[in-house]
Amino acid sequence: IALALGLMACGGDDDGFDDDLSDPTGAGVYVLNEGGFGQGNASLSFYDAVTGAVTESVFATANGRPLGDTANDMVRSGDRLWIVVNNSQTMEIVDIATHASAGTVTFDAGASPTTVAIDEAAGKAYVALRFGNALARIDTASLTQEAVVEVGAMPQEVVLADGKAYVTNSGFGAGTTVSVVDLATFTVSSIIEVGTNPTAVVARGGKVIVLASGVTWDNPDTPDDDTAPGALVVIDTASDTVTNSLPLDSGASDRMELGPDGVAYFLTFGAVAKFDTATESVTADFITAAAHGAGAFYGLGVNPDSGLIYVSDAKDYATSGDVYVFESNGALVRQFQADLLPRMMAFVGAPDAADALY
Fold first, then answer.
1. Rounded to 10 degrees, what is the CA torsion of 63, 2, 307, 246?
2. What is the pLDDT of residues 199-234, one digit of tens each?
3. How many CB atoms lie within 10 A of CB 350?
4. DSSP secondary-structure letter at 356?
5. pTM for the structure as a whole
6. With bands split at pLDDT 50, 70 and 90, how would you rate the model's confidence at 347?
7. Is the CB of residue 164 less than 8 Å from the CB of residue 178?
8. Which of the residues 73, 272, 279, 301 has an alpha carbon 20 to 30 A from that of 254?
9. Of 122, 132, 118, nearest to 83 (Cα)?
10. Would you say 75 and 82 are in contact if contact means Cβ atoms under 8 Å apart?
11. CB-based burial of residue 355 (10 Å sphere; 0-12 exposed, 13-18 middle, 19+ buried)?
């Protein structure tokens, strides 16, 4: 794999698709497979975009131990992967060249780390603690937890923008707010109402875009209708006020990723939709799962250089899932198999150009 990371030319494979459409400057993609809750079988796969080969369980092979129980998030920062392993209460830091663990951050029992955002310039990592109802700050050099600040109920995701952390408080469907944390003081500076069940969040050009997923389940034990529509909400980072809210016809999942062209892709039930951050317009059903033989989409990633869209199908949640690769116009490039519940992707290129490209 280390050799493949240095290759830039594309060769043929037997998947039936044209390799000339593979990532033009990227060498491959890591796929984080969530695994079954309580089963301790989360794993890390590597797909080589040059050869089309998939190598499974690269972390377990390199370290002689499993990744852990229920991997939830993965971010690439420089030559490392930062992987949040939710039910193990850990975050693994993985060296990309060797796949060896460069360290493990362990959180308090029951904290339930969910997602991570990295501030490379400051040398800090910020982790949302779902059941801790808090945001943790980690020093990336010492891998120690420096501080914790209380946010809203069941924080789901965090994004950094303009010296602040924006944390979505999902409340397991009952939440409606985003907590804004001033990074200099590490205190909550404001709380913004955004809509029902805020989950995913991205930032670009002075805007924070929040995916309020809504609620699609109705409790049969209650007389009232418990469902609520979803929405895409735009926050101005200068004033920390909502400037736009676009209702979604149906609920959405908790996955949204930003492409290099300023388009935010997000999952609805059975499709990929997109939101243009410049025009603030939504295109629903941009890519449908049914059109590609999938029951629903589960994971999502966007190559930050090529703009290729990676979407996973968890199938029956008991067997290996598939990953579909699409161009930004929605055309299918190829399909490959990962492991159990493929959820997140991280992209790598030639080692000497990695910092510049990604």
1. 10
2. 999 999 999 999 999 987 777 877 787 788 899 999
3. 15
4. H
5. 0.89
6. very high
7. no
8. 279
9. 118
10. yes
11. exposed
